[in-house]
Aminomethyltransferase (Candidatus Coatesbacteria bacterium RBG_13_66_14), 364 residues
Amino acid sequence: MKKTALNAIHRELGGQMIEFAGHELPVQYTSINEEHRTVRAKVGLFDLTHMGEFWYEGPGALAFVNRLVTNDVAAMADGQVIYTPMCYPDGGIVDDLLVYRFGEERILTVVNGACVDKDWDWVTRHAPQGLKVTNRSDETTLIAVQGPLAEEVVRSVTDIPLEPIGFYEFAVGTVAGVKDLLLSRTGYTGEDGFEIYIPNAHAVTVWRALWPKTQELGGRPIGLGARDTLRLEMKYCLYGNDIDKTTNPLEAGLAWTVKLEKDDFIGRDALIKAKEAKPGRRLVCFDMLERGIARQHAKCFSDNVEIGEVTSGTMSPSLGKAIGLAYLASSHRSPGSEFSVDIRGKLRRAVVVKPPFYKDGTRK
């Protein structure tokens, strides 16, 4: 297991450490519910160092990344970030990631921690000769500051003007006295917030600078457990649960990230065919109508006929009810459609609801 540059701090703060994506990371410090509610109401600090960072530099950088992903990097302005799947030729998803556009010849992609090695192999196998592609995942610490008070915390440690940075935009500047850091208004929680990319040698400096204001505002460190419940309330897909190589973006509800009209990209032909055929299943949000929490791989039924499978489920700390995501036959995808979930051998009623489950926080 890799230990992040913040490992000792997590232990100081009482983090319960587990292995995740090859790293030792805190799953929680106090309780998942407490940490979740703190992010919704105040602010929390996350160590997301397990995420991967790939840089593309030189002539052809934009064209190559645009060919790798389904969204349109060419349509981005410098200083913008987009969310996008990256697909196999058959339309299955290699990973979902963020693209940061610094310019036509300098681009960053941020990939899921559990997919770093697989994604790096995929990227390097397709990269054109002469393009500089660098994997800086092991050199980079990623700290997220999330919650309605996140801007106040970050403002206390930087002279970067934060107000002009819109949702899914970024800037480069000095944070906690460390120069040339990348700071973006992005996150995986549904709240306002920032993600800060830091060379490992300066990670402790930045965390310790953020911590006093976080504490003053009633914030706390946040583990992986609350990160999962926060993202699920927003219907943010988790690779390996809700999307993977067996799913395509159209059936996952990510059609808005698939720009079929742009120049050719890997998976385009398959996705055109999938759109024409219309997906036979869709990823839906659901509420449990009866007691029980639906877990990944639980089977779903209608009139005793299997119609799908749960991909994620939890008890929502914000809403006080059991929620989940499932792939259901397209005939059952509409909000209000009722079905049953097999929970430990008993069928429990559920109903499809409109996403997201939680509808407040993110600054638009």
User: Anything to note?
Assistant: The chain has a mean pLDDT of 97. The first strand starts at residue 2 and ends at 3. Helices lie at 7-12, 32-41, 61-68, 116-126, 150-155, 203-216, 224-233, 268-277. The chain is about 20% helix and 35% strand.
